[in-house]
Each structure stands twice: as C-alpha cells, then as structure tokens.
C-alpha cells in the first residue's frame, strides 16, 4: 500500500537525458550476455571447484533470462529463473515506483520512497498505484506458474548471480536482492550489462558483489544501451530455461 494523494495532475516526473552516450550500445541481449561472460570468465573455475554446489545464475524475468542463459552456458554454470515485476507509474510505465519478486514460495515487495514522494507531489492517487501493484502481482503469479516450476532450486548458502538486461532505477534488482537475503542465499552477485552509475553504487551497497559493464553517467531506460531491444516473449524464456536450466 502507498500513501494517499490528491487529485491527479500527472506532470513533472519524466525527463530525457541530453548527455552523449559514452559507449557503443550492445547489439542485442545475446551480445550483452557474451560480453558479460567474458568479464566473468574467472567464475568458470568456481563451477569446477564447487562440484555439486556451483554458483547459480538466476535470470530476472523476462528480459534478464536470455542474458543469464548466455552467461550460464559460457561459464558452465546452472541456470534458474527469478520472477520479478516492476511497478510502473501509470502513464509512464518505464518509470518504476517499486517492484515485486518471487522465488521458491517467498515474495518480496519493495517501494522507492523518493519516487513515491514525487508521485504524491504530482497528484497520483493511492487507488491508481494500488491498481498497478495488483495487476503486477497477477502477472507475477502467472509467470511463476509458467517459469518457476522446477527452475528454482534452493539457494541457501549458495553464490547467486542475479542477472538482468540492465537497470534504470534498479527497483526489480533491489527486490531480487532482498528476496535472496530472505531465502538465505550465500554470496549475492549482481550482474548487468549497463546501468546508471548512481544505481550501481546503491546496489553495490546491498549486494555482496556488483558487476556492471557500462556504468553510465545517466540512463532513463534500459533500451538506451541497446541497438536492438525487442520484448522477450514467454516462449523465448521457456526456450532459454529449457535449454540451459539444470
């Protein structure tokens, strides 16, 4: 639940970066996953050293799963899926005011207080935001049934690589990190191709390790980091975890 607000006047929240892009964008998620695997190649040794309990790669649904699959295949690590949903601002869904994530029967909800403060000032109502949360929880449950079955092994005491295709506010990754703490994961390592530098610093303080190939000065949408950024379908996720999950 969120605090009530007055009459809606949905203005003043969105902005666009005028800063030049500091790097060439990734071609697509396959390219990003390949480059992330090169950065993390040293983890292949952990797969061999830990025997039956190697690091587990968890892709955040849906966009993080293709990258996680590429990373897991390249490093010889097992692949799983963590179902997470961003709570997007009504009318500006790319802006998150929170996120909800589920894994192994546990669910964690997180809100971004600084965004909620903006929403209160801009006149968003509690009913509007609660409607978003209810809709995303329904989608979360649907995806958990579809993707989570037998793809969520125990993480207790285990090194976990949380993988997404990028971060903007970092809301879904915050929820995922908190969820991993609740289910007693060991080392929590956030792995993303691109994110705002500020978000990287904030998440590095929450996770045990943080790997971001491109910490941008500013980023308002993950798509900015890609030449091709198509929506990932249910079928693509199922194909990834069917081929790589074990």
Write a structural description.
Mean pLDDT is 88; it is low at 1-20. The protein has a single domain, classed as Rossmann fold (3-Layer(aba) Sandwich), CATH 3.40.50.2020. It has helices spanning 29-39, 43-49, 64-75, 113-122, 126-147, 171-182, 197-204, 234-244; strands at 56-60, 79-89, 92-103, 106-111, 160-163, 188-196, 209-216. It contains eight helices and seven strands. It is 38% helix and 22% strand. It is globular and about 55 Å long. With 246 residues, it is of the alpha/beta class. It has a seven-stranded mixed β-sheet, with helices on both faces.
Average pLDDT: 88
Largest beta-sheet details: 7 strands, mixed
CATH architecture: 3-Layer(aba) Sandwich
- Share of residues in strands: 15-25%
What would you say about this model in short?
With 246 residues, the chain is an alpha/beta fold. It contains eight helices and seven strands; from the N terminus they run ααβαβββααβαβαβα.
């Amino acid at each position: 639940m969120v605090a009530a607000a007055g009459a809606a006047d949905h203005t003043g929240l969105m902005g666009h970066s005028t800063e030049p892009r500091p790097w060439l964008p990734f071609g697509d998620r396959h390219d990003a996953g390949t480059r992330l695997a090169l950065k993390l190649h040293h983890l292949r040794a952990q797969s061999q050293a830990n025997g039956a309990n190697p690091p587990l790669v968890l892709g955040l649904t849906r966009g993080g799963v293709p990258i996680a699959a590429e990373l897991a295949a390249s490093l010889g690590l097992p692949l799983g899926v963590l179902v997470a949903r961003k709570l997007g601002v009504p009318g500006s869904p790319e802006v998150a005011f929170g996120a909800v994530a589920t894994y192994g029967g546990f669910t964690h909800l997180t809100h971004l207080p600084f965004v909620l403060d903006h929403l209160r000032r801009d006149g968003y109502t509690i009913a509007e935001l609660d409607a978003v949360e209810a809709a995303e929880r329904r989608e979360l449950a649907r995806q958990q049934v579809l993707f989570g079955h037998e793809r969520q092994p125990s993480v207790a005491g285990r090194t976990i690589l949380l993988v997404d295709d990028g971060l903007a506010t970092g809301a879904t990754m915050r929820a995922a990190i908190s969820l991993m703490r609740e289910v007693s994961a060991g080392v929590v390592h956030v792995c993303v191709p691109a994110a705002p530098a500020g978000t990287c610093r904030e998440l590095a303080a929450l996770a045990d390790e943080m790997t971001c190939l491109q910490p941008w000065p500013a980023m308002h949408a993950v798509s900015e980091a890609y030449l091709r950024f198509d929506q990932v379908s249910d079928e693509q996720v199922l194909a990834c975890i069917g081929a790589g999950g074990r």
